Each structure stands twice: as C-alpha cells, then as structure tokens.
Amino acid sequence: MKKLGIILISHVSEIADGLPKLLTQVAQDVSFTSAGGTDTNDVGTSMEKILTAINNNDAAELLAFYDIGSAKMNLELAIEMTDKQVHLYDTALVEGAYTAATLIQADVPLADIEKQLAPLKIK
User: Fold this and answer.
1) What is the pLDDT of residues 67-96, one digit of tens each?
2) Which residues are catalytic?
3) What are the backbone angles phi and psi of residue 32, rounded to the nearest 5°?
4) Relative to the CA of 45, which of 59, 67, 68, 72 has its CA 20 to 30 Å away?
5) Domain boundaries, the chain
6) What architecture does CATH give domain 4-120?
7) Which burial class, exposed, middle or buried, applies to 14 when counting CB atoms under 10 A from its CB (0-12, 13-18, 19+)?
C-alpha cells in the first residue's frame, strides 16, 4: 500500500462509488475511499460519511477531491475532526483524482503531484 491515498466526495453515491473502479485500473496499489450522498442516500453530502471515509482509508496521508459546493464545506469540517493529514484540491473531480492516482502509483513525490494538479484547479 502506498503512503498517499485518495478520498473522493460526491453529492451522488453512484459517482463516489464508481470512480474508484476507474482509478484502480491505473493505480491498483493506492488506497481509495469515498463518500457520496446524504445519510439517507439522497443527493447531497454527509460530514459523517466523509469522516468515516477519511478514517477508513489505509493511507497515512490523503489527497481529497470533491464535486461541488457543500461537499467542500463538509470535507473541511471532517478534516478538522481527524488526525490524518488531508490535502484538499479544488480541481475537476475525475481529472484531478485520475492525475493524482496515476502519479501516486508511480511513487511521484507530493510536491510534484501538486505541480501537476495546479493547471487543473477550478477558479
């Protein structure tokens, strides 16, 4: 297992659950966890689900990707409640996570991963 892992947050559980299927095709040694939908599985996000996903990830340090709006807010709240080091990225969800996953798999250092993510930042 790699030192860096990835957490994926989406308003829709099918997106959050499906994206790791894509990413494991290029990064089979990276730990992925996800949180999608509200506690009642409606469209939205849940800070509790996000915190669980953070804590259940096997990696010591996490790169976090989210889809829109309140997902970031709940992710920031969950980050405050964990001892894990979590880096939050404002990139397109699929493109950012895919880029990070491939680079983690290739043992690229975090600083270099962040350089590759910078052009993907949503402004």
Assistant:
1) 998 899 999 999 999 999 999 999 999 999
2) 11
3) -115, 135
4) 59
5) 4-120
6) 3-Layer(aba) Sandwich (3.40)
7) exposed
